[in-house]
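Researcher: Let's continue the batch. This sequence belongs to Serine protease, and it's 392 residues. Same format as the previous ones, please.
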Amino acid sequence: MSLSYFRRQAVALAVFTGVTAVSDVGGINTAYAQATDITQTFVEAGEIGQGFLLKRLDACYLITPEHVVNDAFFASVTAGNAQRSRGDATAIQTLGYDLAILGVTGNAQRQCGIDYASFVSATTDVLKSLKSATQLSVSTISADGARVLTPANIASVDLLRLYIQPTDANTPLMQGMSGSLVFAGNTPVGMLQSVDANTSQGVVLRIDRLLETINPFFNDGLSITSETPLTQLQQTLELTAWSHASPAQISAQFISDGDKTSHWRYRLQQGPQSIGEHNPLHAYRIANQVRLQFSLGASAEAPLQNISSITFSNYSDERDSFIRDFEILASRKAEGAGWVPVYAGTWMIGEKDKTVQLNNVAARRLMLVARSHWNPDATDIVISEVTITNNE
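Model: Same format as before. Here are the structure tokens for Serine protease:
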């Protein structure tokens, strides 16, 4: 389906329904007013479709039907927010029930909207909303970021799906609307996944089933833990300690040698769940996380250093070697404990450089805590370089 076709259909849809295509700057249907924190998007990938954005830590993700992605590795998104933010999305994972998750970059990432926990809270009354609903609204974003609402009625409901019909035969559901969120009043109750071209009946995946499907990705049960014993390594440069034995400790020099073509490789070999010669990284997720400690070259008598940013690089081109969720802690002490968390975020898979702005954190040491990995069965972590920027 061509992009110009969808533009024409979206305009026609707005005319038929008598609903002006609107952004989030007022003028929105009253029944939809409380849903504006949910950023919906127009998606152009293998096919034209719809999706919505969810924020987790410092990363932004696109949820869209898998058939919209259609084996494409990249997608372009236009958000239906006040800024009409645009961005690119990279395929991360496909799931059951025709769902896909993509990582979003660009302005759309910076204006992602609702976080995962808030979205879950917004859907808690889904069953109550369905029982009392007299009419649903199918919310669709056009190619220019305008929002169009199509009224629809429930034909039937089962444990997985809703089956809906447009209220007015002159305002049909159309191809290109797959991925639109469906609302009962203020509550999102499902995602439109397919439309019968002959009857205009829409098949909607219930929002509770959608959440059950994506929940393992967004909520993996990780928690911050207290001190894990560190094996001290006497390094003349920044990396001074790590938490688990490595078969090639000499590679520690590569993490700060100024050369991104050389890599520090960390293969875990000792831990709570030994499997052959090494452990998968998920064995270290909660009680035994991987920790790397960096000295800023300051003694206890030297002034504290003001750290403006830290950049982690992975130029290995090995997708299975990327850390996923991580935390940065800082200590004003030259040795011992005293660690304070200053940042938690996600290093997107394939993102060669991950820069974290620390806003002048005063410290003598920093610690990187690897909380999870993109591939739970992977065994290696690779970091090509760690660069710290100071404010004098």
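Researcher: Any comment?
Model: The chain has two domains: 35-217, 237-270+283-390.
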